[in-house]
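User: Is it possible to get a 3D structure for a protein together with its bound compound? The compound here is ME8. I've pasted both below.
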Amino acid sequence: MSAQKSRFYVTTPIYYVNDIPHIGHAYTTIAADILARYYRGRGRDVFFLTGTDEHGQKVQKAAGARGLSPEEHAGSMVKNFQNLWKTLNISNDAFIRTTDPGHKKVVRELLQKLWDRGLIEKRSYEGWYCTPDERFWTEKDLKDGKCPDCGRDVEKIEEQNFFFLMSRYQERLIEHIGKNPSYIQPETRKNEVLGFLKNQTLGDLCISRPKKRLSWGIPLPFDEDFVTYVWFDALVNYYSGPLYLADQSNGNEWWPADAHLIGKDILTTHAVYWSTMLMALELPLPGTIFAHGWWTIEGKKMSKSIGNVVDPEDICRRFGVDQFRYFLFREIPFGNDGDFSEDALITRINTELANDLGNLSTRTFTMINKYFDGVVPEPQEAEEEMRSLAEGLVSRTEEAFAALDFQRALEEIWKLVSYTNKYIESNAPWALAKSPETKGRLATVLYSAAEALRVLALHLSPFMPETMEKLLAEMGLPETGGKNPLWGGLPPGTRLGTFEALFPRIEKLKNIEKEEIKSKETPKMQEEQKKPEEKEKSEAEHPENLIDISEFAKVELKTGKVLKAGPVKGSNKLLRLEIDLSEEGPRQVVAGIGKQYKPEELEGKTVIIVANLKPAKLMGLESRGMLLAATDSEGALSVLTTEKSILPGAKIK
Ligand code: ME8
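Assistant: Yes, that's possible. Here is the predicted structure of the complex:
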């Protein structure tokens, strides 16, 4: 990315409309937002595109399962993404849906172009198809007869299809990557792609599906009996989006994109398919394809069945939007894998945000209010060391941003936070205030602290836009007043506004979520978390995962009548139930069903309880037994009840 360019075009993957957006989707989109905000702040003309991937078999299937047309299904699911982007303050300039007529038109034009140039051919094809991934594999690609990507079953399919002659571009792609060291980032991912390209022969890419098998897609312009392969359709969004969604009035031609941000899961489709498609179309290649790492949750893969999928809406409601945004980019270098836990989030909020930055602002405001009636004093001298640290941030963050190293940018910015806190400590303004002779020095110290705060707000605003805007407003600076990166941008005489602490401290909750997840874990869930090699071993020991009757007999299942149900303080997931099991008194059971059930819906119901489970503590409440509920792959949850009315305490065998 060259710093001289006046425009900047950044993209996120377009997310499958079937998914409910989670922390992973939020991560890539916030990264793109930080970049977009940063470059807008540097005066560049920015276009930031995100959107949804709406065609393909999975969407067709999911829509059918809901009794909806694919259009209706996609139309309702897309709102989950659009609403989340509003919550997270995502400043995208456009939102592309692959069902937009404008996009479909461009896909057909590009296909026609490739067809006219003889770069697409019809062939008979036999291959192994992974339906969930919507990808064909050759025999040798398969791992133990399963999809090498997701490990699921594949089916053998023979059919006529259209192929893009991708193999022709193998050498050119190797050369391009070699000549453009930042084309694929980070370095490890580049080496992965190069290794693959140098050691294997690139095949041609099947880019169609017969309509009789899949109707939910864009028809090929040269054979309407086929629709486009979902990846061909999806990748084109980066090119088609600005053509019909960007304001063309300033004469900006957006293609090529400066940065495609993606997760490491979709590196091949971008680095190989998309690059060669562009070469064949004689279009310029993007500046950078950056594949970031993968988030796990408390050491585990996110999974609907475990119920540990992190919902960003929930995190933002409980901890704050900017706190979440900050955490994601401070916690791990962009490019590395990371682990999310509420404990880690709370620690960063309390130490770096509430203590370091929050206290700096509170102290500065309080002292200017106290010693100068809330008016920024005139400094008597320039603090050269501080000035150079603050002004140096411009080039140091610029370098970090050019390398997409968000963590380094934050570390650089934090040097000024720490410096200023130490500066206040060592100059002790409270002592200077005691004597009229040191009033001048006091003015310098408090001016410098306030000015550092202004510079910090400026540099932090791409990461934490809402809070930094609030801070600048509290400093009495109009929107533009905070934009000057040079020292001295805060005019003495500025009257500070009312001040509210930026980042409230958060009390650590006592392992609620962890206990809740653990108490709900079934052997199947534990199995899902195993590494492939561990899985193989346990399958050998327990063929087909079967148990014998004596193992089942250990579990005591009983009917119970819900006498009372109510919320659990501090958790929107848990409900406290009093259940009659026909024992001496009712039992207290704490169940993680608060998102799906209102307490009053449960009262009077006969439910199924694991009666001989060791008691567990959830949010400080003892839970004696576990309520059974079914969860499907879409995340819907239903509490088990009995088919006919039956007394509480009845045994289930
Ligand atoms: O692949 N950690 O869409 P998708 C980090 N439609 N990032 C994660 C993540 C995790 N655990 N889980 C998901 C598709 N992501 C295609 C893309 S683009 C032309 C078509 C993020 O809904 C990450 O950015 O499966 C990943 O690449 C993307 O979500 C996959 O989103």
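The pocket of ME8 is lined by residues 13-16, 19, 24-25, 27-28, 53, 234-235, 237, 262-263, 265-266, 294-295, 302 (CB under 6 Å). The longest strand covers residues 557-568.
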